[in-house]
Amino acid sequence: MTRKKISILGGGSWGSVLAYLAAMNNNDVTLWMRNKELATSINEEKVNRNYLPNLKFGPNVFATSDMEEISNSHIIIFCVPSDAFREISDSARTYVDERTYLVTATKGVEKEGFSLMSTILEEHYPKNHIGILSGPNLAEEIAAHHLSGTVIASKHKLLRESLIEELSTDFFKIYENNDPYGVEMGGALKNIYAIACGIADGLNSGENTVGMIMTRGLGEMGRLAVDLGANPQTFLGLSGVGDLITTCASPLSRNHQFGKLIGTGLSVEESIKKIGQTIEGLKTLKVVKKIADEHNVEMPIVDSLYKIIYKGSSLEGSIQNVLGKDMVKDVEFIK
Asked: What pTM does this model have?
């Protein structure tokens, strides 16, 4: 296997895990982050003391706060919060070669419009091949070598093959997909339904209810996907239903945690403060509500959550207020 230079932009849990995986495959890994002090400590101690402190980096991981260090990378993986994605993508432009494969591992949408992260990369890097890395990937579990899978989606086959080769391990499996838009939409939209399932959990609604929310949520995702040009079949894979189930069911999900706090009676403001970290589903909910209304796509769970979170509607202790009034059809796209 040819040794390559792989740069990861973002020093959080997910970025740290991706750096670890790339290094396991005998690559030279540059882990970029804003925090210069943290970068120095990672190089000295070979652990990220702020995130996953039990994950030990190999000698071929170099942390830095200097963007110039990503120069001459074969692959660059963007793993920064969606709110900072455009800024970081723009800052990196000076140091990115046109032949470098660019991959977004960030799930979310921009506050304005319905711009996914790949859209920003396409805007900044029109000549580069771009991929999407998305799936049910809880960083803590991957760091503990629990069996996990993800999806690399791109129109460029060589990019897909390269990511599979450079990040795969015996406990981290990567599958390919040629519908990047659908894969990225799945990763962004599922956070909305994790909030809904969290509310159900807080209301002690039971497993039947959670299963119903996940399934009806998948139908909503498919409706919007078709309207915006994605393939609804993509949502049957890891980046769709796989990620949806994991995020909706896992207490490790911040979106689920936030919803549970709402379900137990806390206000939106109190819940946000208690979580203390970015809750991607909140921003995604607002953007998706707007686009669904503009395109006349029926998304009753989105409508109901929007009323509860942004309009102050009362839950009144009932999960019915989250589910809303849905169409009677069970399965989408069956004629």
From this structure: 0.88
